[in-house]
Fold this protein.
Amino acid sequence: MSKEEKVIPYKIYLEEDEMPKTWYNVRADMKDKPAPLVNPATMKPVTEADLAPVFCEDLIKQELDDDTRFVEIPAEIKEFYKMYRPSPLVRAYCLEKKLGTPAKIYYKFEGNNTSGSHKLNSAIAQAYYAKKQGLKGVTTETGAGQWGTALSMACAYLGIDCKVFMVKCSYEQKPFRREVMRTYGASVTPSPSMETEIGKKMLAEFPGTTGSLGCAISEAVEKAVTTPGYRYVLGSVLNQVLLHQSVIGLEAKAALDKYGVKPDMIIGCAGGGSNLGGLIAPFMGEKLRGEKDYEIIAVEPASCPSFTRGVYAYDFCDTGKICPLSKMYTLGSNFIPSAIHAGGLRYHGMSPILSKLYDDGYMKAVAVPQTEVFEAAETFARTEGILPAPESSHAIKVAIDEALKCKETGEEKTILFGLTGTGYFDMFAYERFHDGKMEDYVPSDEELAKSISELPKMN
Amino acid sequence: MSKEEKVIPYKIYLEEDEMPKTWYNVRADMKDKPAPLVNPATMKPVTEADLAPVFCEDLIKQELDDDTRFVEIPAEIKEFYKMYRPSPLVRAYCLEKKLGTPAKIYYKFEGNNTSGSHKLNSAIAQAYYAKKQGLKGVTTETGAGQWGTALSMACAYLGIDCKVFMVKCSYEQKPFRREVMRTYGASVTPSPSMETEIGKKMLAEFPGTTGSLGCAISEAVEKAVTTPGYRYVLGSVLNQVLLHQSVIGLEAKAALDKYGVKPDMIIGCAGGGSNLGGLIAPFMGEKLRGEKDYEIIAVEPASCPSFTRGVYAYDFCDTGKICPLSKMYTLGSNFIPSAIHAGGLRYHGMSPILSKLYDDGYMKAVAVPQTEVFEAAETFARTEGILPAPESSHAIKVAIDEALKCKETGEEKTILFGLTGTGYFDMFAYERFHDGKMEDYVPSDEELAKSISELPKMN
């Protein structure tokens, strides 16, 4: 039987020996590389030495390496991956039927692990390199808590410390996430806190603040550089994170290849870019090398539209302005999405790699309002049996839209999207949606112009 | 390469065409059948006609059928199973290493679906037969909410109504579970409610009551028999449920057979018996037919010890005493486990099939205190990367104990246990454990003697 004739099962699982043995670094195939990180003190491209107080050695090398195409996955990480990977590539037969579309829909589901998302793919890698370097532990920030949970799991497995600064409003609204992290032995501190100078300053200046991701990053970095034996790790945006997350795309491509399937369109949600960058990596590689064209769509919330309404410029990655500057699509580091927005993907900037690819025309972006995202989430839950995270549901929304377009035109497009995680800890948001209390928010031109006007002067 | 030489992967997934095509009815291999249900009005064995107002036709046939060994799984249910099954059979390499045991530990993980447990296996079957009969909808009760969620998912998929009576304290303490059910379009009513006569009576008699499973069952049954086009469905205890849940054991056995592995010991948690009965079914079949011996252990909470401290007698299944009487291991239908107990498995009785097998010496039972259960859960979460439900953790606790015994004796036993679900909605209980506020509760002999003395007089 030829590949094309094979019946495609509901779920395709790779065998253990088919799982990726290397990560794929898409930068190696980019003719024009992403702009380098810049040291805010010298205003020059960062060096390994600049980053050494903050990041782990091996991760710095990965961060700065634009050339190595394939990076071997260390044996200990491959073992850990076997605990919860391969993740299933699912043919959405039920959703296709429900929509009555001729489109063929696939999704790569990363939510079947206790962190509830794809974040674990990079968490284990970063924790591994920290341990390899002989460090005592790592610090990080978390918003909704998926990254913090993932890092807690990885650190518990490897036996190193994990210190999480959790954005205060999430800490209070998501006590369950905090308890999951505690189950894994992590210490969780609401941010801003009195544990750092930046936290103290924020609390003095804004006593009632419920925190922000940018502030929590600053606190975690400060804690790392002031505590011997600790380094800072981050769950998105960075090049190293996209490298580790390429395991998503590599597995998805291998699973499709087994059945001779080529997607026409690849859709992913984009906050900092970790999932989207990982999912599209090997497909983008083929596109960059001119081997095959794919339509690639980033989906972001209308309330935090860095691709669609931001600018491509150097900006601060954190509120405390202590991290390197990064050239990326950004709304300005002082932009904080409205509290009305429940759906994650709240970061003001975007992965430098994805920013460059988007700027060069290799991918598109669309921004969607959250009520429509939750409608799509509910349709998906009822037909595919998975309760999706609001973040992931951005991709669902556009996948459904595209499948419905195919219904009109009769095109039998093959659509692949990333289903990054589950929504078990997002039921407050679902409740608001069920009760008809969910609103949409779109920042005004004035609001965005203001935060963008506060970009660093170098631009 | 012979089967024995195959390297066993971390996770064994069956192919779609290897999934069970029939359920297995263990009663067919029991020389002595479980005692029949008894109609409380006539005190005679129930007939199909007795049950027709309460249950769906095909399900009544399955309930009363002691003889048919294999029951074909309808095509529509097989399609639904493909959406979230096969569930992985996991080799617990990481746990084995952590414990330093020569034992080989496997677990069948049923938590990778949005209901969070194995309950979906029977929910889809019961919803299917209700729809096949042309019914408008079904009613049920739920405690912790796993069954209610599962039934909501199944009904949403098939497009029939789902009305859930949720034990009031759970309704209030687990608002997220309620929202998941609402996502699937179910109506969820806290029990006792003013919607039924039994509920009104309970509220009049005990105005501050937070409800019980027995009362919620009575309300759901009353609602079903008084609403045209509705029937009642139940997530555990019944023979039909164990029949549907045999898919767990059939898959587990097929996965082990692929690698030539025979377990020495099979361990499962037991509340009403749905998971344990399903997991052990095909193995028990071999044991009953004298083909192979297995050590089978039911694990129950020390706070609700129906096997280890109950009596084998006819009892009411519900507080309202409107359901058929069932001969089973029971603590008496007025027994309500202490509120101190957080770990599920709160039903006063036990599956009649398992009760009979236990009484005939085909399986053992142990009761474990909840603090030790949560310790085991935490160890498991940190090594295997899955946050287990408290219910499931009862089995983990005993599997770890047995593996540690092997460490002492040097025996290389093969242990299979059932990991029924995830604990995402049990973080209040985990929080109490982390904060050192969790207590153990063991009912006194006097307390049990009292509730057992209230058994119906026929015994």
Remarks:
- Chain A touches chain B through 41 residues (CB under 8 Å).
- The longest helix of chain A spans residues 239-258.
- Residues 3 and 258 of chain A are 7 Å apart (CA to CA).
